[in-house]
Write a structure and sequence with these properties.
This protein is an alpha/beta fold. It is built from 7 helices and 12 strands. The protein binds flavin-adenine dinucleotide (FAD) and NADP nicotinamide-adenine-dinucleotide phosphate. Flavin-adenine dinucleotide binds next to strand 5, strand 6 and helix 1.
Length: 278
């Protein structure tokens, strides 16, 4: 099934069939499971009509036995990768060996049910940032997800001149949505867009797979990331969003702070924002 997309053929909008109005979640159905590797999957689900989010937000997904008496539901936060205007929801997930959620997720199939929190959360959004010229989105692993949503926001394409995405993964097979990202500027929705998109894949454990092959903090420190993007990273013009591995976010927060970048403080927009996944 590798690389294959398993689809359910269900109608897109979900009904909150076993959820009452007092519940903080709805029951949705899996529309498709796309396996990039045996441990990396993107899943599409139906979307409750009332579900609202800002690109960059996450929600919580719940998986559990169909018969609740067989066990508790396992809830985990997941970033929304779909566009705010899509009639489905999309997520990317890695299977962590032995992880409570991963152990359930690996059996999930198109047509199956899952629970989706009615609310969305987070601060990895462009409204956390002061106006700027270039938007850098730095991701490791599944941290790319929220940037796929942000990249599909027409306002982002109007408000910035450059959109630069760096995605660091261990192996090239984990460069999820590589072709889809390249195709975003060709969509009719972005035909009059001001911004130019630069996509920088970074494969760290497969020598020769990509031109950039070191971890993002090192590429930033030695200037190779800026050189590859042909764009200086400067606090006056650049805005930076970082998502994924907590060690990476910590290192980048430190190095960007040393260059004068700050996060949103008490409602004063900053030049950088972070989301760490564990
Ligand atoms: C705000 C937020 C948003 C998140 N969004 C996503 C998302 O879009 N996609 C996603 O796959 N996960 C995401 N996560 C992580 C996710 O919630 C779960 O932790 C993950 O699915 C594993 O769950 P688990 O129960 O199997 O293992 P857990 O017990 O939750 O995790 C066990 C260990 O697995 C590792 N791990 C967990 N998540 C990841 C990951 N994403 N990549 C690499 N290693 C990981 C860490 O070492 C962690 O300590 C997010 C987490 C947060 C806090
Ligand atoms: N990816 C796999 O092949 C694989 C397979 C099975 C299970 N898993 C499970 O999935 C989880 C890991 O998933 P993942 O590979 O998506 O995430 P990851 O370990 O965070 O690696 C993703 C990318 O981030 C880089 N990275 C790691 N630490 C960093 C740091 N401190 N600073 C900057 N960059 C850093 C990695 O580079 P490096 O290569 O240099 O670390 C890699 O390019 C683990 O729990 C693992 O058990 C992964």
């Amino acid at each position: 099934m590798m690389g294959a997309i398993q689809e359910s053929g269900l109608a897109v909008f979900g009904k909150s069939n076993d959820a009452g109005p007092q519940d903080k979640w709805t029951t949705e159905r899996v529309l498709s499971m796309r396996w990039w590797t045996p441990t990396l999957v993107t899943l599409r689900t139906t979307r409750y009509r009332g579900f609202r989010f800002t690109p960059g937000h996450y929600t919580r997904l719940g998986l559990g036995a169909a018969d609740a008496s067989l066990g508790d539901w396992v809830w985990r936060p997941f970033s929304l990768a779909s566009a705010a205007y899509d009639d489905f929801l999309e997520f990317i997930a890695v299977l962590v060996p032995g992880g409570a959620f991963s152990e359930q997720l690996k059996h999930l199939c198109a047509g199956d049910r899952l629970r989706v929190d009615k609310a969305s959360y987070g601060f990895l959004t462009v409204d956390q940032l002061a106006a700027g010229q270039d938007l850098w989105m730095l991701a490791s692993g599944t941290g790319l997800g929220p940037f796929l949503s942000i990249l599909q926001d027409p306002a982002v394409w109007q408000n910035y001149e450059r959109l630069i995405v760096a995605h660091s993964v261990r192996h090239s097979s984990e460069l999820a949505w590589r072709d889809e990202i390249a195709d975003i500027p060709k969509r009719e929705l972005f035909a009059d867009a001001k911004a130019r998109l630069t996509y920088l894949p970074v494969v760290t454990r497969e020598p020769g797979a990509t031109q950039l092959a070191e971890r993002i903090p090192l590429l930033l420190a030695d200037g190779r990331l800026e050189a590859a993007a042909a764009c200086p990273l400067d606090v006056a013009t650049s805005r930076v969003l970082v998502c994924g591995n907590p060690e990476m976010t910590r290192e980048l927060r430190q190095s960007l702070a040393a260059r004068g970048f700050a996060t949103n403080r008490r409602g004063v927009p900053g030049q950088m924002a972070f989301e760490k996944y564990w």
